[in-house]
Amino acid sequence: MTVQKHYSKAPIVEAAIDLRCEFPSEQSMDSLERVRELLVAEYPIREDLIELRAQIAPMTGITSEQKTTGFRALTGERTRIAGIGLESFTFSWLAPYDRWESLRDEAFRVWGLYSSITNPVKVTRVGVRFINRLDLPNPNGTGVELDQYLRTAPRIAPELPQHLESFFLRFQILIAGAASQHHDNRD
Questions:
Q1: Which among 32, 85, 117, 185 is least surrounded, fewest beta carbons within 10 Å?
Q2: Residue 46: enclosing H or E segment and its boundaries?
Q3: CA atoms of 134 and 35, how far apart (whole Å)
Q4: SS3 for 100-128, per residue?
Q5: What is the percent of the chain with per-residue pLDDT over 70, rounded to a whole number?
């Protein structure tokens, strides 16, 4: 078994767990307000989530519709955020990030409050995201060899300019044992 490293100054600026759900019936803002009541002591700041739909038609002009689809509940220091929505639940931990176990445990606790009121039938999607910021040295404007800092780094073809401004890296990894359960339902 490998020993997990714990970085005292992790480069993570945001870590998030996102769950999309299927419910037995349509959720209402009333049920989400009951979740809010359970969170308000630890997550006192509220920001409404608004969905705006607009349509442009040649003869009728512009029509729009907006509705509240949930809210974000934030801690006083704004480092933990619970996204409470009509179709989803998101939990984010902003810098300073502690460790995976802290994120997982608090997300699971808040999810328990959310699911006890909304009663999801099943979770249809799970997403986990980490956003890192690495402030690398750039002496005299020279480039930095990313291999000195990262175990997995992008490779730029030598024919292209070698000045890398930023990059986005995405992995989709099938978890061992999940292969037999993985199937596509888009029939």
A1: 185
A2: strand 45-57
A3: 36
A4: HHHHHHHHHHHHHHHHHHHCCCEEEEEEE
A5: 89
- Percent of all residues in the chain with a pLDDT value above 90, rounded to a whole number: 52
Dist CA 10 CA 91 (whole Å): 19
Q: Are 13 and 95 spatial neighbours (Cβ–Cβ below 8 Å)?
A: yes
Q: Give 129-165 pLDDT, tens digit per residue.
A: 999 887 777 755 566 777 777 778 788 888 988 777 7
- Please tell me the distance from the alpha carbon of residue 164 to that of residue 152, in angstroms, as a whole number: 15
Given a contact cutoff of 8 angstroms between Cβ atoms, the answer to whether 10 and 133 are in contact is: no
pLDDT reported for residue 184: 45
Half-sphere exposure of 61 (CA within 13 A, CB side): 2
* Cα distances (Å, whole numbers) of residue 77 to 18, 54, 95, 146, 165: 21, 35, 11, 33, 31
Over the Cα atoms of the chain, what is R_g?
A: 21
Per DSSP, helices labelled H in the chain are 29-39, 100-118
Cis peptide leading into 11, omega within 30 of 0? no
User: Which residues touch 134 (CB under 8 Å, ≥6 apart)?
Assistant: 11, 149, 150
Beta-bridged to residue 70, according to DSSP, are 49, 85
Q: In angstroms, rounded to a whole number, what is the distance separating the alpha carbons of residues 121 and 21?
A: 7
